[in-house]
Specification:
It is a single chain. By secondary structure, the protein is an alpha+beta fold. It has 5 domains: 224 residues, no CATH class; 95 residues, no CATH class; 247 residues, Rossmann fold; 94 residues, no CATH class; 54 residues. It is built from 30 helices and 24 strands. Helix 2 runs antiparallel to helix 3 and helix 26 packs antiparallel against helix 27.
């Protein structure tokens, strides 16, 4: 027997019986806490503090002590349990380590078919092998032989397991170990773990220790000890997900700008870069990296040193975006090699998940010459431009707050997918704005010329407050505020055809400030700054600013890396189809008549002004919001609930824009368009950010989600009659919170919306 305690800093030590043990390792709270630890970002500055804070909420066991004379966890008062605990830290993949260890036991004992892993571990008095709460170590507990010290028992178990490095300070009789869930346990022999070993005598059920010469057969190489080996069993070309490493390296060289290989003078740098990326798919195995990376003419010693440096760098919790892109390209090539027709068909069918509604005349014209797969993205890209044209329009949202046609749109697609297709249609739509901007820039230049001419004169020229509204995105904060002030309530428009250019051009502090302005612009809220210096522009104004960005999926991740600031949830995202291995899309030119008509529509929107009212759009969006609210309740998804609200705002604004395009008349086209935009934006946001947002909001490991961001209902996953325990198990399996308050809240929501009814104190029935 041994002791346990409710928390490391709470409760008193008590005897851990087999029944209590089962309760501890099956506790939903224990599973939830360990899941949250596993989900932490190891690269974060506060990783160690957050991990330790979570671990302190776990119960503990005290394997070395059978009891404490004074009821306190103090080594001097401990009665030895007869057990010894071995701590092995810094194992990257404990489960892989154990599986390989089991395989070596099987191989070493091939001539003794009746002697297996269980016999070997019991023969060595090893009763428990488990993954630690951090997920990056092993906890081993076993018996102490008569007269054997804890240190000697630890050494014996380590030798049997082929472990050469372990925590040598784990010998205190009061030493604690955090409880982990059942699925963290790799091996357990409960009869030995809970037998009475306090006398120091060997357990009568444990066979004699096997001879040392048999143990020596099982010594494991160093790379297996660290749990980091994933080397193939044969010397043939090793693969990752069925892709030869050589093909991955070749694509990685292209993606990092080294497609021609490494020249003299840069070989070490390129080799280190390859090792730094490839380590994530080589299980951080130096031997495998040495084998699969090209040598570039470097000596083995130079290559080993570069690999060692790369492996020793801090590791991200996820594969780098560059590697994800490389793997995706290689997988597509592999898939295409097997069935090019099927790949092409998938690419063609991807956009059919949400068919386009009937469009107003202007958007029909804009989309007419585009391939079908590009039309949805064209509509989303048009929204900020059309909103900027109709900048003088105001209306009330569902909450009775005044709004304008403010839109942020982002078009994303792999490199060379044709993102620039938006340029020609948008240039036509921007005609009125660009014409006005030409006049404003002339005024601005004339003013600058006068300033230079009167540099030392007392009579300075009067500032004409020139305000070009289309200025790109590489603009300083001071200049942006100046233009927003001079615009007097008209929208400025920022168009960035490469998101990475914007990210690289902004220093951290400046970008943080501009990000604040963008977020405020969504609601036309106020922003201001005041400096002592006359050189800076001081202002406090409402922000009317529309934004259109395009970029690759990797640049998207870099740009919207911080979900917590809320910018990503304010953006209408559109994802273009992947055109890999398909024919080049054809973008037919507009006829002269079509160009003229598009420009006429743009001028018409530019002349619109005043407050408009269309309660039918409000009804459509209210109904859509309610349907999404019900889905969020069914799925218990906080991400759905947040994203539906922002998507509804965008859908409402799009509906009011369509109302203008339908000559201030409400038609079925208006309602369907408003709902389509809301749904399209919602699906793309769920697909891009839903999982990550759910993790951040609830600490969950994963969200129950399927294609295009739709969320499967928890309620649908339960039987017709179920208990709270069934719900707890389901949520625990999916990594969601299983606290009593969370379970009660879900059940109460379902009952309040007439989804379930109570049969008795423990059982519910679906309605």
């Amino acid at each position: 027997m041994f002791q346990y305690q409710e928390k490391v800093n709470a409760g008193v030590p008590q005897v851990c019986t087999p029944e209590i043990w089962d309760q501890l390792i099956d506790s939903p709270e224990v599973k939830s806490i360990c899941s949250r630890i596993a989900a932490l970002d190891e690269t974060a500055a506060d990783y160690a503090e957050r991990k330790q804070a979570l671990k302190k909420r776990l119960p503990i066991i005290i394997p070395h002590a059978a009891s404490f004379k004074n009821g306190k966890r103090v080594s001097a008062d401990a009665v030895p349990s007869g057990l010894a605990m071995l701590d092995v830290d810094h194992i990257n993949q404990p489960k892989v380590w154990f599986d390989r260890f089991a395989e070596r036991i099987k191989t070493a004992c091939a001539e003794r078919p009746s002697y297996g892993l269980k016999d070997f571990l019991m023969a060595n008095g090893i009763y428990l092998i488990a993954i630690t709460a951090s997920g990056k170590g092993l906890r081993v507990i076993g018996a102490r032989k008569a007269g054997e010290s804890i240190e000697a028992a630890q050494l014996r178990m380590a030798t049997a397991l082929g472990i050469t490095e372990y925590d040598a300070v784990t010998k205190d009789l009061a030493r604690a170990s955090y409880v982990v869930p059942r699925d963290y346990i790799l091996w357990i022999y409960e009869a030995g773990l809970f037998s009475d070993l306090t006398s120091g005598a060997p357990n009568k059920e444990t066979p004699d220790i096997i001879r040392h010469n048999e143990q020596s057969l099982l010594a494991l190489p160093a790379h297996v000890e660290s749990g980091e080996s994933n080397s193939p069993a044969t010397e043939e070309s090793p693969c990752y997900r069925g892709i030869p490493y050589g093909e991955i390296v070749e694509q990685l060289l292209i993606s990092t700008g080294n497609g021609g290989g490494a020249e003299v003078g840069e070989r070490n740098t390129v080799y280190f870069s390859l090792a730094n990326y490839m380590r994530y798919i080589c299980d951080f195995d130096a031997a495998l990296l040495l084998r699969v990376l090209p040598d570039f003419g470097l000596s083995e010693q130079e290559r080993r040193q570069a690999i060692s440096s790369a492996i020793g760098r801090p590791r991200k919790s996820q594969m780098p975006a560059v590697m994800e892109g490389v793997i995706a390209v290689c997988e597509r090539e592999l898939e295409y090699a097997k069935s090019p027709e099927e790949v092409t068909q998938k690419a063609q069918n991807k956009s059919t998940a949400l068919p386009l509604p009937e469009l107003p005349r202007l958007l029909k014209l804009v989309c007419r010459r585009l391939p079908e797969d590009y039309r949805a993205a064209m509509i989303i890209a048009s929204l900020p431009i059309l909103g900027t044209l109709a900048t003088r329009i105001r209306f009330e949202y569902l909450d009775r707050q005044e709004q304008s046609l403010s839109f942020f749109s982002c078009i994303t697609a792999p490199a060379a997918s044709g993102k620039s297709f938006i340029r020609k249609p948008l240039d036509l739509l921007l005609t009125p704005i660009n014409e006005q901007d030409a006049i404003e820039r002339e005024k601005e230049q004339a003013y600058k010329d006068k300033l230079r001419a009167s540099k030392n004169s007392k009579n300075q020229p009067e500032d004409p407050h020139a305000c070009p509204r289309n200025n790109g995105v590489a603009i300083s904060i001071a200049k942006l505020l100046q233009l927003l002030t001079y615009a007097e309530g008209k929208h400025l428009i920022g168009i960035g055809e490469e998101m990475d250019t914007l990210v690289k051009s902004e220093r951290a502090g400046v970008w943080s400030q501009k990000s604040d302005i963008y977020r405020l612009a969504f609601d036309n809220a106020e922003y201001g700054q005041a400096y002592m210096s006359d050189a800076s522009f001081n202002a406090h104004i409402k922000v009317y600013y529309n934004l259109l960005l395009t970029g690759t999926p990797n640049s998207l991740k870099r740009f919207f890396k911080d979900l917590e600031n809320g910018l990503a949830t304010r953006v209408c995202f559109a994802q273009l189809p992947d055109t890999s291995f398909t024919e080049i899309p054809v973008f037919a030119p507009y006829s002269d008549d079509e160009k003229e008509e598009i420009v006429r529509w743009a001028r018409r929107l530019d002349s619109e002004q005043g407050t408009i009212v269309c309660p039918e759009v409000g009804k459509v969006i209210s109904d859509w919001l309610e349907r999404k609210r019900q889905q969020a309740i069914d799925a218990d998804s906080h991400a759905m609930d947040i994203l539906r609200r922002r998507s509804a705002v965008m859908g409402f604004r799009a509906g009011m824009l369509c109302y203008l395009l339908e000559d201030h008349n409400y038609t079925d086209i208006v309602g369907r368009f408003a709902e389509w935009v809301a749904e399209y934006v919602f699906r793309n946001q769920m697909e891009l950010w839903g999982d990550r947002m759910e993790q951040e909001l609830t600490g969950a490991l994963e969200v129950i989600s399927s294609d295009r961001g739709s969320v499967r209902s928890l309620l649908d996953s339960l039987p017709a009659e179920f208990t709270a325990a069934d719900l707890i198990k389901l949520r625990a399996r999916k990594g969601q919170s299983v606290k009593g308050s969370s379970i009660s809240m879900v059940l109460n929501r379902w009952r309040a919306t007439n989804r379930i009814e109570k049969i008795n104190e423990t059982t519910w029935r679906k309605v």
